[in-house]
Amino acid sequence: MEYKKEKSKFKNNEFENKEFKNDEFINENELILELCKFKYADKNKLTDLTDKNLNYPYILGQLFYNRTAAMAYFALKSNGLLSKVNREFRNSVKAIYEYNLNKTNSFIYALGLFKKICKEFDFPYAFLKGAYLAELYPKGLRTSNDVDILIEPKNITKLSGILKRNGFLQGEIKNEVFAPAKREKIISSRINRGETVPFVKEVNLPGLKYLEIDVNFSLDFKPESGTEEKSIVSEFLNCTEPLILNQIHTLKKSYFLMHLCAHLYKEATVISWVNMGRDISLYKYCDIYLFLKEFLNEEFLTDTANDINRLKLNKECYYTLFNTKLLFNIKNNKLLDELLKKIKPENTEFMNCISDPENRKTYTYNMDYKNWVFCGKRKENIYEA
């Protein structure tokens, strides 16, 4: 795919270009972002926005595309504002919330069954992303299709044996049907992707036919390889903490946040993800926002800043936290401001750059970040730097 070769123009400290401005859906986008705050949404702001003549088909499309429709229903219902929005809009977000509620209950039930298997683990491991977040969110707002586990490469064979003894098979779900993986693909995935082919078991629960286990043994947001990469995985696995009566382990909170930030950054700033249209999804920013609201205090700030600086994840975490603050209009939060100050890289020109590692090229875009997030044709709006 070819891109226009044009230098970007943006302010290094503001990460935006005032030359581009899209006023068409300003109120709609502001409502979407306020709804994405779910239980922390500002009722007065929601009321003011829903008083306006809004394009609800556009809002609905963005909410579904960003996997945040259930959050919108929760925010409107919690603030007594459901009657203020378009009926078709209201019924649609209610339907997805009810579906997600069933799916989340099924996922948590299946996860409870899987926790029993974890008792057989005699090696370090950590549950990542949705396996923890599904229970941190109000039920029905954060669905997950799989369970992500981080382990060291040397324990893959041992974990594989445990999962297979408990009825899991390696393969993929295609059109709601399980397709076993061929041996060549199983080997290739281990060598080239830093993860195994998913382990799948049929559970036949409401909204959840299969439980999928994704086994990760590398942190693919880090460019290192070999012994250094192994040491980074070990570093993360040395910083775990028990959850839910010691039945499972996840990363300690500062490491969990770093992991979320780094994965969001990788997907948002690599050309292959932009080309797939999977580079940015608001639910990932909602994860960061919730984590900050729930856990950011003086101790967490100090631990997180120290860990980010020591592991040199400044770019990844600064990008994600800065843009979370921007998208959710977080003001007068001294702790977040202090954290950003402590981890800010010397050079911030990377903030609106897209990398193409394979071809060793860098691209950028000429719009502010909110417009970039809601731009439906991002891959057509990047320029070679």
Question: Which properties best describe this structure?
Answer:
385 residues, alpha+beta, 6-stranded mixed β-sheet, single chain, globular, 3-stranded antiparallel β-sheet, 2 domains
Give the total of beta strands: 11
How are helices and strands ordered from N to C?
HHHHHEHEHEEHEEHEEHHHHHHEEHE
Shape summary: globular
Please state roughly what percent of the residues sit in beta strands, choosing from under 5%, 5-15%, 15-25%, 25-35%, 35-45% or over 45%: 5-15%
- By secondary-structure content and strand pairing, the structural class works out as alpha+beta
Q: What count of structural domains?
A: 2
Report low-confidence residues grouped into runs of 5 or more: 4-14, 16-21, 223-227
Rg estimate, integer Å: 21 Å
Mean pLDDT: 90
**What is the CA-CA span between the terminal residues?**
16 Å
Q: Give the fraction of residues assigned to helices.
A: 40-55%
Strand neighbour order, sheet with most strands:
1-2-6-5-3-4
Largest sheet: 6 strands, mixed
**What is the number of helices?**
16
Topology of this protein?
Blueprint (H helix, E strand, L loop, with lengths): L25 H10 L7 H8 L5 H10 L3 H10 L8 H32 L7 E3 L1 H7 L9 E5 L5 H10 L3 E6 L2 E4 L2 H10 L6 E7 L2 E9 L9 H12 L2 E4 L4 E4 L1 H16 L2 H6 L5 H14 L2 H14 L2 H14 L6 H10 L9 E4 L4 E4 L4 H6 L8 E2 L1
Parallel strand pairs: 2-6
Antiparallel strand pairs: 1-2, 3-4, 3-5, 5-6, 7-8, 9-10, 10-11
Helix pairs in contact: 1-2, 1-3, 4-5, 10-12, 10-13, 10-14, 12-14, 13-15
Structure description:
The chain is an alpha+beta fold and 385 residues long. It has 2 domains: 1-20 and 252-385, no CATH class; 117-251, no CATH class. It is 49% helix and 14% strand. It has 16 helices and 11 strands. The protein has helices spanning 26-35, 43-50, 56-65, 69-78, 87-118, 130-136, 156-165, 183-192, 226-237, 253-268, 271-276, 282-295, 298-311, 314-327, 334-343, 369-374; strands spanning 126-128, 146-150, 169-174, 177-180, 199-205, 208-216, 240-243, 248-251, 353-356, 361-364, 383-384. The protein has a 6-stranded mixed sheet with strand order 1-2-6-5-3-4, covered by helices on one side. It has a 3-stranded antiparallel sheet with strand order 9-10-11. Helix 10 (253-268) packs antiparallel against helix 12 (282-295) and helix 10 (253-268) packs across helix 13 (298-311). It is globular, with a radius of gyration of 21 Å.
